[in-house]
Amino acid sequence: MTGPLDPLAPPLDPAHGRHLLLQMLRVRQLEEKCVELYSAAKIRGFLHVYIGEEAVAAGVLETLAPGDAVVATYREHGHALLRGVPAGAILAEMYGYVEGCCRGRGGSMHLFDAATRFFGGNAIVAGGLPLAVGLALADKMAGRSRVTVCFFGEGAVAEGEFHESLNLAALWQLPVLFCCENNLYAMGTALGRSESQTDIALKAAAYEIAAWAVDGMDVLAVEETARRAVDAVRSGGGPHFLELRTYRFRAHSMFDPERYRDKSEVARWLERDPITLLRATMEAAGQLSTQDWEQLEADAAAEVAAAVDFAEAGTLEPVEDLTRFVYSERGTGPTTGEGLEP
Amino acid sequence: MKSSYREALRAGIRDAMLRDERVFLMGEDVGAYGGSFAVSLGLLEEFGPARIRDTPLSESGFVGAGVGAALGGMRPIVEIMTVNFSLLALDQIVNNAASLLHMSGGQFNVPLVIRMTTGAGRQLGAQHSHSLEGWYAHIPGLRILAPATLADARGMLWTALEDPDPVLIFEHGSLYNVTGELDDDAGPVDIDTAAVRRPGNDLSLITYGGTLPAVLDAAGQLADEGIDAEVLDLRTLRPLDEAAILASVRKTHRAVVVDEGWRSGSISAEISARITEHAFYELDAPVGRVCSAEVPIPYSKHLELAALPSVERIVAAAKEAVRASG
Question: Is the entire prediction scored with pTM above 0.90?
Answer without folding.
Answer: yes
